[in-house]
Amino acid sequence: MIRVMLVDDQELFRGGVRVALDAQPDMEVVGEAGDGREAVALIDEVRPDVVLLDIRMPVMDGVETVRTLFDGSRSSLPRVIVLTTFALDRAAATAIRHGASGFVLKDATPAFLAAAIRAVHAGSTVLAADELGELFATDVLAAPAAPPPAEYRELSAREQAVFRLVARGLSNAEIAEREFVSESTVKTQVSSILAKLALRDRVQIVVFAHDHRLVD
Fold first, then answer.
1. Where is the Response regulatory domain (predicted)?
2. Which of 23, 29, 63, 99 has its CA at 20 to 30 Å from residue 43's CA atom?
């Protein structure tokens, strides 16, 4: 079962999402919170796999909640999906930059939301690379272009090639076909890239690539 936690200041909205997710055979809602401060305490208690996090809340908003969760003090972290009311949301871009795995619009269908939770739980993103690029173009907090750090230059030529393909949004299967290797080889290379660059997941590869202008 995928353990899901809901964080939104609207109780009625949380109730509707809970009903939709509890109807899924592979999910259970293990906690609810009405603001970020309450959420951080509850996350440490119930240990959810995936957190659905509203970006705008009283007391502590979604961006500050993500910053707090991913401040390096926790050894075990949930995947975070940001909930927002419109697509090109600067706050959502900032949350993704700090560790969230993507965003979903609050008017998404229950089926889409469930699919997004499954994808993020499996280590994927709920945003295509071109959507992330468009989102970051509107992010006033985006970091200026910087030279690639030494860790990137230490990637092998093959790893750099795989890095660029991941940053463009290709799946492991698509990369394997293009590079004439097996999917398991690609998976191993992606894991090596994440470890060498100290990145959490594929979303952070896209962020890294955009920050350092490593993709067109």
1. 3-121
2. 23
Write out residues in the chain with pLDDT < 50, as ranges: 140-141
CA separation, residue 62 to residues 21, 29, 142, 178, 209 (Å): 21, 19, 17, 38, 24
Residue 83, helix vs strand vs coil: strand
Name which of 65, 49, 131, 58 is nearest 93 in CA terms: 131
The rounded distance, in Å, linking the Cα atoms of 89 and 95 is 10
Q: Which phi and psi angles does 48 have, rounded to 5°? A: -70, 160
Angstrom distance (rounded) from CA 108 to CA 30 = 21
- pLDDT at position 48: 96
Q: What is the pLDDT of residue 64?
A: 94
* Cα(31)–Cα(106) distance, integer angstroms: 19
**Which spans in the chain are helix H?**
11-22, 36-46, 62-69, 90-97, 110-121, 129-137, 150-153, 157-167, 172-179, 183-197, 202-211
**For residue range 26-48, what is the model confidence (pLDDT) as tens digits?**
999 999 999 999 999 999 899 99
Please report where in the chains the tokens 């949301």 appear, as a residue.
Answer: 89
Q: How far is CA 58 from CA 10, 18, 37, 166, in A?
A: 11, 21, 9, 36
Q: Which domains does the chain have, with CATH numbers?
A: 2-137 (3.40.50.2300), 150-211 (1.10.10.10)
Q: Of 213, 196, 214, 201, whose CA–CA distance to 97 is shortest?
A: 201
d(C-alpha 63, C-alpha 66), whole Å: 5
What span, in angstroms and rounded, lies between the C-alpha atoms of 30 and 182? Answer: 38
